[in-house]
Amino acid sequence: MKCLTVSPDGLYNKNMEIKKIDSAFLAAWLKPRLADASKTDFGNILLIAGRHGMCGAAALGAMAALRSGAGLVRVALPREDFPILQILAPEAICMERGAALAGLDHFQAIGIGPGIGTSEEACDLLAQVLTDYHGPLVLDADALNLVAQDGELRKMVMRYGESAGAATSGLPGTGDGASAQILITPHEGEAARLINGLRGGDGKTAFRKREGETKEERETRRIDTACYLAENLHCTVLLKGKGTLIVSRQEDAANACDLTGDAGAIFRNPTGNPGMATAGAGDVLTGVITALLGQGLEITAAACCGAYLHGRAGDLAAAEYGERSLIARDLIRKLPAAFRSGTLIGSGD
Q: Are 225 and 191 in contact (CB under 8 A)?
């Protein structure tokens, strides 16, 4: 399928092939582990998530990251919430946020946003990460809402890719000479708010159903929106929804991930179901992708593999529990089976 050029909003028009993610794609990136591997080989990652009353977001992200193969998962959250996380995710390591911020470049990947809120304190937290960290970074949930409402944070996101790429060439998790980038993971409402911030207009029109609009035309507007965000925020975009889309800027796709030989390729994920429209499912996705980044996958590959595995886990959970009864923890329960079906079988030499 080609990206058509019929967007009434004129968000972005690009004639590029849309490639479907499949098990062969995963097999190319998710290699068997060597028999003599240790936990330090699989990434020391940080999740900055949760606040009082929202500790579940941190726990879901942490457990998803652990189930996705991260060697060490540290979670920066308020000290009063340590006992909750230690009960829900005992394999994760609690960190005070001040201590985490003092040593950000010790981490191979960072995910920030689930449950942190949009207070001034959260804004300062995100600003410091964007300033002091120089590796692969996933922005989700409240981090996206902060970027949507704060012009200075948007500028920091735009600058991040270029400065981080120069600083992290050859660091663990970034690949030799690869550019470290930001991945944003908005659902349609968050994407609309980001567009609203960028354009100063009604971003909600990007997804509003138009009279007489065909299904293909609406899907084209989703593609145009993802491309617009990728180009204008200088990042990789994972736009959630039916047929989740992953889009990189043309320059970044060439530098960061040689997936197809075509810079700027667009990928569509075929897995997932409506039962995944439930609280916490996005926190699980953030944990999965951050873990894959920590294991050395390039950012577009991590986004594509993460979306596929997350959706596959959702399909397995729906088959057992039904779409109506599916909850986010069910996705974590099914991640091992999703990885097994995604060709992670056996051990290395």
A: yes
Max CA distance (Å), the chain? 60
d(CA 84, CA 176): 39
Residue 17, beta-bridge partner list: 2
What tokens appear for 175 in the block? 């690949």
Which residues are CB-contacts of 261 (< 8 A; sequence separation ≥ 6)?
none
Residue 56 tokens read as: 């579940």
pLDDT at 54: 97
**Cβ within 8 Å of residue 206, ≥6 positions away:** 9, 11, 188, 191, 192, 195, 221, 225
pLDDT at 330 over 50: yes
Distances (CA, A) of 233 to 12, 139, 207, 268, 299: 13, 12, 19, 20, 15
Cβ-proximal residues to 183 (8 Å cutoff; 6+ apart), any chain: 136, 137, 138, 139, 235, 236, 237, 238, 289, 293, 299, 302, 303
Residue 267 in tokens: 């990928």
Distance, in Å, from the CA atom of 8 to the CA atom of 88, rounded to the nearest integer, reads 47
pLDDT in tens, 23-69: 999 999 998 999 999 999 999 999 999 999 999 999 999 999 999 99
- Cβ burial of 261 (10 Å; 0-12, 13-18, 19+) is exposed
pLDDT of residue 137: 98
Degrees to nearest 5, angle at CA 156 with 153 and 161: 140
Give the Cα separation of 319 and 326 in Å (integer).
Answer: 10
- CA 11, 234, 99 angle in degrees (round to 5)? 135
- Residue 288 near residue 65, CB atoms below 8 Å: yes
Q: Which residues have a Cβ under 8 Å from the Cβ of 208 and sit 6 or more positions away?
A: none
CB-based contacts of 319, cutoff 8 Å, min separation 6: none
* CA pair distance 28, 259, nearest whole angstrom: 9
In the structure encoding, which two tokens stand for residue 202, read together?
């009604």
Query: Which residue pairs from 214-219 have beta carbons closer than 8 angstroms and sit at least 24 positions apart in sequence?
Result: 216/4, 217/4, 217/6, 219/243
